[in-house]
Design a protein that fits this description.
By secondary structure, the chain is an all-alpha fold. The protein is built from seven helices and no strands. 15% of the residues are buried.
Length: 171
């Protein structure tokens, strides 16, 4: 069992960032953490069942599982009933997945709150660029736009952030 855990940890460390980047390009931010968790849970169960060395290409296996998870997510989304905004209870916990990407939790909370007002597409670009270090061209390719378009959106968000936080410091 110790070999399985060591193998899992090694593969996880080597593949997580790349798989998360891929996942964020394909699904809404709110779903990415769950899909990644399901993917790695299935990988761990397969290692336990088959043995630590049974999966020769773990990255290829994980990508395949993640693609199936993404497809399932979209199938499920098409079947579920959307809840109107006014029916959502006011005391739901806020999504704080961006906090994990920064060291300063106070600033991360403020940035998260700010980003939630931006369109989902802009949020993804911001997280992929600043959180995962993707290049503008790679983000543009994944999101079906140009590098200049990504750069422009990021510039506008930075200006808004700067104006918002400078205004707060002056008050």
């Amino acid at each position: 069992m110790n070999d399985v855990t060591e193998r899992f940890n090694t593969v996880y460390d080597a593949t997580f960032r790349e798989l998360m980047r891929y996942c964020l390009c394909k699904v809404p931010i709110a779903d990415a953490d769950d899909l990644m968790q399901n993917t790695y849970a299935k990988f761990y169960r397969a290692l336990c069942r088959k043995g630590a060395d049974a999966i020769r290409e773990p990255k290829a296996y994980l990508i395949s599982v993640l693609k199936h998870e993404i497809a399932s997510c979209y199938r499920f989304r098409a079947k579920r009933r959307e809840i109107p905004f006014d029916e959502i209870p006011p005391n739901l916990p806020a999504d704080d997945s961006v906090e994990e990407l920064t060291l300063d939790f106070v600033a991360a909370d403020e940035i998260t709150s700010f980003l939630q007002a931006e369109p989902e597409r802009t949020q993804r670009m911001f997280i992929l660029y600043y959180g995962y270090g993707m290049k503008l061209g790679d983000i543009a390719t994944e999101m079906g736009t140009t590098a200049a378009g990504v750069k422009s959106k990021l510039l506008r968000v930075r200006k808004k952030l700067r104006a918002t936080f400078e205004k707060e410091k002056l008050l």
